[in-house]
Write a structure and sequence with these properties.
Structural class of chain B: mainly alpha
Distance between the termini of chain B: 50 Å
Radius of gyration of chain A: 18 Å
Order of helices and strands of chain A: HHHHHHHHH
Order of helices and strands of chain B: HHHHHHHHHHH
Number of strands of chain B: 0
Helix content of chain B: over 70%
Number of helices of chain B: 11
Number of strands of chain A: 0
Distance between the termini of chain A: 33 Å
Strand content of chain A: under 5%
Oligomer: heterodimer
Largest interface: A-B, 38 and 35 residues
Largest sheet of chain A: none
Shape of chain B: elongated
C-alpha cells in the first residue's frame, strides 16, 4: 500500500523551493508571536489557550492542511504530468494512500510540532494545554489531509474550495450557527483535546464518541473516494 | 535518375516572385493606449468570469452575491423596523465581510497573472506595442476595479435602501461617501498585495493559498496581539500593532479620518497623529506593490 518512490516524488513536490518557504513561515510566525506574548503578558493559561485555539488550530492547521493536501496531487493533475505516474503498474489506491501519508506527515510536522513548541513557550505546558492542542493538531492533520487530498482529485479549484471550507464554514458559520460546529474537523479534534486536557480551558461542542466516529469515517471515506476518483480520472482541460 | 533539373542552371529572367495577392495592412493602427485599455477591460471582465467558461463564473459571482445579500437583509430589517439608522455603518461593512473579500482577491489575483506566467504568454504581450508599465498598470487597475465593484456594490444597496426608507439624506450621503473612499483604499491595497504574491508563482493553486495565508494569518496574529494588549491594559500599543495587517490598516485609517468606529479591541482607534502614520503606510504599501510588480515584470518580459 506504500510506495517509496511515489512518496519521495511527493515530498519533493511539496517541499521544493518556495512551497517550503511558506510552509515554514507560518509556524515560525506562530512561535515568534508566542515569544512576544510571553514576554509581554507572562505565562497565562487562558491566553495560551486563546492563542493556540484561535491562531494555531483554527487558522494555521487548516491552511497548512490545504497546502499539503491539495499540493500533494493538485499540481500534477493540473499540468497533466500525473499520466506518467498513472501509467506505471501501481494501483491507484496505493498512489492515493502514499500521497495521503506524505500529506499527513508534512501537515503534522509543520503544524503540530510548532503548536507544541508554542504551547511550551506560552505557559510551559500548564494544565496540559500544549499537549492537548498538539494532540488536536495531530488528529485534525489526518482528517484535513484526507479531505483536501480528495478535493485535489475532484476539482481544479481545490485550493479555493478547501479555503472556503476552512475559513467560511468553520470560522464564520461555526461562530454564527451552532449546528455548523457539529460538522467541523476543528471541533472534532477539540473533543479529543478536551479528553486529554480534562479541564474547562479546552472545550468542544461535540462529544468524544461522535467526534472519533466522524474523524475515522471522514478520513476513510475521503481516502477511498479519492482512490475511486483517481481510477476514473480524465485529463480534459478546462483552462 | 540522371535527368538534370534545368531550373537553377538556366540564367536570365526566368526567376520571378509570384504575386499571390497578399496585401499590406494600411488601416489605422490603434496603438499603445488602445492595447492597454483592451488588456484592462479583458482583465476586468475575466475577474468576474465574463468571457470565460461557466465554471470560472461560479466562484466570483457567488462571492459577489454573498457580499450583497447581507446588505439587502440589513436594509429590509431597517425598513421593517422603521429604524432611524442602518444596523451597520457604511465603513464597517467591508471589515465585517473581510473573509469574502480576501477569498475574492485570493482567487482572482492568480487568475489574472499566474496563467500568463505559466503558459509563457507574457512575452507575447510585450511583442505588441504595450510596455511593462502598461501591462502592470492595466492588470493592477483591472483587479482594483473588480475589487471596488465587489466592495462598493453592497454600499450602494445600503445607500439606496436607506434613502428608500427615508433616513436622513445628508447624514446617509456623508456616510456613503466615507464608505466609498475607504473601500477604494481597501481595493487598491488588497489588489496590490494579491498581485505581488500571485505574480511570483506560476502555479494558480499555490498563489491562492499564499495570498489567503498572508491576509488571514496577519489579521489573526494582529488581532490576537491587540486582544492581549487590551487585556494587559496597555491600550497605547494597540494602534501600533494594527499597522501590521491590511485589514487593520484600513480600519485604522477610516476610524482616524473617515468617522468610523474602530473594530479594534476596546474600540481604541488611532489618534489623528497615528492615523497619519496609517495613511502613510497604506499609500507606501500601494506604491511598494506597484514598484515590486514593475521590477518583477522587467525580468519576466524578456
Amino acid at each position: 500500500m506504500y510506495d517509496p518512490t511515489v512518496a519521495r516524488l511527493t515530498y519533493r513536490a511539496l517541499l521544493g523551493r518556495r512551497r517550503a518557504l511558506i510552509l515554514g513561515a507560518l509556524p515560525l510566525l506562530l512561535i515568534v508571536i508566542s515569544v512576544v506574548v510571553r514576554a509581554l503578558a507572562g505565562a497565562d493559561d487562558q491566553t495560551a489557550a486563546d492563542l493556540l485555539g484561535g491562531l494555531a488550530l483554527a487558522t494555521m492547521v487548516p491552511i497548512i492542511g490545504v497546502i499539503a493536501g491539495t499540493g500533494a496531487i493538485g499540481p500534477e493533475i493540473d499540468d497533466g504530468s500525473v499520466v506518467y505516474l498513472l501509467s506505471k503498474p501501481l494501483k491507484r489506491p496505493t498512489i492515493i494512500f502514499t500521497k495521503l501519508i506524505v500529506a499527513i506527515a508534512v501537515t503534522m510536522v509543520f503544524s503540530a510540532l510548532p503548536t507544541l513548541i508554542a504551547g511550551f513557550i506560552l505557559n510551559g505546558n500548564g494544565q496540559q494545554i500544549a499537549v492537548a492542542y498538539t494532540v488536536a493538531a495531530l488528529v485534525s492533520s489526518i482528517a484535513y489531509a484526507a479531505l483536501f487530498l480528495l478535493l485535489g482529485t475532484v476539482s481544479r479549484h481545490a485550493v479555493v474550495f478547501g479555503l472556503v471550507y476552512a475559513l467560511v464554514w468553520e470560522a464564520l458559520f461555526g461562530s454564527l450557527v451552532p449546528g455548523a460546529r457539529t460538522l467541523s474537523v476543528q471541533q472534532w479534534s477539540l473533543a479529543v483535546a478536551h479528553k486529554v486536557a480534562g479541564g474547562d480551558l479546552v472545550t468542544s461542542d461535540v462529544g468524544l464518541t461522535t467526534a472519533t466516529v466522524f474523524l475515522v469515517v471522514v478520513t476513510v471515506l475521503a481516502t477511498w473516494y479519492a482512490g475511486q476518483k483517481l481510477r476514473s480520472l480524465t485529463l480534459a482541460g478546462e483552462e | 535518375m540522371a535527368v538534370e533539373h534545368p531550373a537553377a542552371a538556366v540564367p536570365g529572367d526566368q526567376t520571378r516572385i509570384h504575386n499571390i495577392g497578399y496585401r499590406n495592412y494600411e488601416g489605422p493602427r490603434l496603438g499603445r493606449s488602445y492595447a492597454t485599455r483592451s488588456l484592462y477591460s479583458q482583465s476586468l471582465r475575466g475577474a468576474y468570469g465574463l468571457g470565460r467558461s461557466i465554471k470560472s463564473k461560479v466562484l466570483p459571482m457567488l462571492l459577489f452575491v454573498v457580499m450583497c445579500v447581507p446588505a439587502a437583509i440589513m436594509v429590509a430589517v431597517a425598513v421593517a423596523t422603521k429604524a432611524k439608522e442602518l444596523p451597520v455603518d457604511y465603513t464597517r461593512y467591508a471589515i465585517i465581510m473581510q473573509a469574502v473579500i480576501s477569498l475574492y482577491v485570493a482567487s482572482q489575483a492568480p487568475q489574472s497573472v499566474s496563467r500568463d506566467l505559466r503558459f509563457k504568454t507574457v512575452p507575447l504581450y510585450f511583442s505588441r506595442p504595450i510596455e511593462t508599465a502598461d501591462y502592470v498598470r492595466a492588470k493592477y487597475a483591472a483587479l482594483a476595479s473588480a475589487m471596488f465593484v465587489l466592495t462598493a456594490a453592497p454600499l450602494i444597496v445600503l445607500y439606496v435602501g436607506a434613502l428608500l426608507a427615508k433616513l436622513d439624506f445628508a447624514h446617509q450621503t456623508k456616510g456613503f461617501a466615507q464608505g466609498l473612499v475607504s473601500v477604494a483604499l481597501l481595493s487598491l491595497l488588497f489588489a496590490g498585495i494579491g498581485l505581488v504574491i500571485a505574480s511570483v508563482t506560476p502555479r494558480r493553486g499555490f498563489g491562492i493559498a499564499a495570498v489567503i495565508a498572508v491576509l488571514t494569518i496577519s489579521y489573526g496574529a494582529v488581532s490576537t496581539l491587540q486582544a492581549i494588549a487590551d487585556a494587559q491594559n496597555s491600550s497605547g500599543a494597540i494602534p501600533w500593532i494594527g499597522l501590521f495587517s491590511p485589514v487593520t490598516l484600513i480600519d485604522g485609517v477610516q476610524s482616524a479620518f473617515l468617522g468610523a468606529s474602530s473594530a479594534f479591541p476596546g474600540a481604541v482607534g488611532p489618534t489623528n497623529g497615528e492615523g497619519a502614520v496609517y495613511v502613510l503606510v497604506v499609500l507606501g504599501l500601494i506604491a511598494a506593490c506597484y514598484g515590486l510588480l514593475m521590477r518583477r515584470y522587467k525580468k519576466v518580459g524578456l
